[in-house]
Amino acid sequence: MDIETPLKQARPSQRAAKGLSLLEVLLMITMLSATILPCALMLTRTGQNARDVYLQSTRSILLNSLQDEMNVDRNNFVPVYNLAAMNTDTTESGQVIPWRSVVDTTNAGASDSFQKTVFYYLYNTAADAANAPRYSTKVIQTRNTLRVRFDTPQAGYMDSSGQWWNPWVLYNGAAMVPGINNASSLYTNYPTQPITNLPSHRDADIYRGGWWVNSTGSITYTAPVSTGLYTVKLYFVENNAAVLRLMDIFLEGKLMNPGNPYFAPQYCGNQTFCANVQMFDVVVTDGNLDITIAPNSNTTNDDPYIQALSIKKRT
Questions:
Q1: Number of C-alpha atoms within 13 angstroms, CB side, residue 275?
Q2: Domain boundaries, the chain
Q3: Structure pTM?
Q4: What is the homologous superfamily of the domain 145-313 according to CATH?
């Protein structure tokens, strides 16, 4: 019996069990690299895209927030919203989000008492030049009525109809701020009893102050406006006694009440604490609506005063 043959047949399998050759190992590493590397790059790119989308979303939220805070009723609108340099105080997850707002006061009608135009600029980094934003948008807000009351101390007021009354400020044409020409004759005089034609004393705060007209002078309120038709309402009340107060009212230099220089209390049957509103229409073509009140030129009388005014844009 020959026992060497089975042993000789087992030798090839023993040689195969020794392992892979170096070339085979290198080929396998190459194949794995070709599979793993694209996946890693794809994950990196996905992460970067997600970060970019997140930052862009954050910038959009910031922009929307800035737009929401834009209030055309603010008397100090231009200095508040006109930034000379970018703001770098806003951060999100350690990422600075630079921004800047610029009020357009260069073009006729861009910003006035009824319209405000603001450019919002967003930057990638604080190293960007302030005049080279990566993204910008223009926001225009308007109102159709400007309401002002002449009270000291200065304070805004929300009436029972939800209408906002601005406090008085001095006129500033360069900043498109409507206002008065002097503050020397303003005073506070709270009504000592209910105003007779205001139910339950409602909105009496509109009339609690006043702008007094010196017997030898006049007062002027100026509002920067675009060309068009406007309705002006002047609000009066007599808080002292049933005295005779006569006045001349000028809009754009034109006398609006010739032969009819009276105001409260004459319009209320000589009753004190009676509110009265006078209304006039005027066309403006020179960029400013000027409202001037002066003592009546034909009569010596108690000095007139005015409590509030409103201007409504018609066209």
A1: 25
A2: 22-143, 145-313
A3: 0.73
A4: Galactose-binding lectin (2.60.120.430)
